[in-house]
Amino acid sequence: MLLTSYRLGNLILPNRLVMAPMTRARATVDGSPVASTATYYAQRATAGLIVTEGTHPNEVGQAGPFMPGIHNAAQVAAWRVVTDAVHANGGRIFAQLMHGGRIGHVEVAGHEPVAPSAIAARTDVFLPSGVVPAPVPRALSVGEIREQAQAFGDAARRAVEAGFDGVELHGANGYLIQQFLSSSANLRTDSYGGSINGRIRFAVEAAEAAVDAIGADRVGIRLSPGGQVQDIVENEMPSLYAALLKALPDMAYIHVLATVDDEVLMGLRKAWPTAFILNPGGQIGPNESTREQGERWLANGADLISYGRAYLGNPDLVERFRLGLPLVSTDRETWFQTEAGYVDHPSYQH
Ligand SMILES: Cc1cc2nc3c(=O)[nH]c(=O)nc-3n(C[C@H](O)[C@H](O)[C@H](O)COP(=O)(O)O)c2cc1C
User: Which of 16, 18, 22, 278 to mutate to test the pocket of ligand 1 (most atoms within 8 A of CB)?
Assistant: First the structure.
């Protein structure tokens, strides 16, 4: 099944493998991808779909050093080199729009981080010089919340200008969108907090802004239901996600991490009308997603399967699955910011 084709919006994917979004922290200090970024993604162009590393839609959304953005003309031009390289190799690529919210630092973004409420995450954030405890963010006003939602629409438009086939909103892993969904990060008592309808409002408005900007066929959203990284608690889960799926606009896909039990995941699958991408590994679980898990989830009704860590060391993952070739696993030390471990993993040497 993994090696059969699938129609996603207006794209024909030659197989069901999605390269999961993975931050690599190799952009310039001002957030432009570099020449090796194009090489890296072009090496992986046989994936049915590539989703890029988290890319901030505006300055304040930058979560960590050397992460790329898509909020100015220089970044759009630099991303154009990447998307051209992937398309020249026959691939398809979506940009992941990731707003860090309270996961960020003034020394990284040049702005105080913003969030639904002024509550620090009990976690560390990265500076160029090392890690520090996450700072207390500034709570957004209602007017500012609308601006942050619109930032996803503006970034989606720039992504299409940069040659991307679409965008994925990062609604998972404790960043801004999930902070609004959360009952620990979001203590608002206005229309953007409190009840389930309040907590889902920002996610829905951000998705609507992206859909209005570039069309339903080119927008997806990533979700980690019940996921607890970066100090997230979600009360009334799974009702929260049932309501969210009902309220989201028509769009190309949801990309769900296996952060909750199979029964809840199956319920979300059944409730969602378009493509369902499942990431078996969840939030960097102990084991990398496997081919067997992918096949099992396709049999259970998922349409596409995303692979993260397996794509770091195996640019030709599709071919390795096709031929049953061994997989290379990578050293955590090379995941972020190093020269090594980025474009130096070759295809299988026969
Ligand atoms: C180095 C690294 C960076 C990651 N960065 C992101 C990211 O920017 N956005 C995101 O949604 N998930 C990110 N993830 C999570 C992966 O997309 C994926 O969900 C996770 O690795 C589990 O899947 P796997 O077992 O196939 O690796 C990252 C994972 C790794 C290993």
Answer: 22
Q: How far is CA 32 from CA 61, 88, 172, 184, 334, in A?
A: 15, 21, 23, 33, 20
Strands (E) in 86-160, as ranges, are 93-97, 114-115, 124-127, 130-133, 138-139
User: Is-above-0.85 flag for pTM?
Assistant: yes
**Four-point Cα dihedral 25, 30, 35, 38, nearest 10:** 60
Q: What are phi and psi of 306, to 5 degrees?
A: -105, 145
Question: In the chain, what are the domain boundaries?
Answer: 6-334
**Using only C-alpha atoms, what is the Rg of the chain?**
19
| pLDDT tens-place values along the chain, 350 residues long | 999 999 999 999 999 999 999 999 999 999 999 999 999 999 999 999 999 999 999 999 999 999 999 999 999 999 999 999 999 999 999 999 999 999 999 999 999 999 999 999 999 999 988 999 999 999 999 999 999 999 999 999 999 999 999 999 999 999 999 999 999 999 999 999 999 999 999 999 999 999 999 999 999 999 999 999 999 999 999 999 999 999 999 999 999 999 999 999 999 999 999 999 999 999 888 889 999 999 999 999 999 999 999 999 999 999 999 999 999 999 999 999 998 999 999 999 87
Work out whether strand 219-223 and strand 253-257 pair parallel, antiparallel, or are unpaired. Answer: parallel
CATH topology of domain 6-334: TIM Barrel (3.20.20)
CA of 336 to the centre of ligand 1 (A): 12
Cβ atoms of residues 237 and 225 within 8 Å:
yes
Q: Is 308 in the pocket of ligand 1 (CB under 6 A)?
A: yes
The residue contributing the CA closest to ligand 1 atom 18 is 308
Atom of ligand 1 nearest to the CA of 20: 17
| Pairwise CA distance, residues 180 & 200, whole Å | 7
What does residue 221 show for φ and ψ, rounded to 5 degrees?
Answer: -140, 140
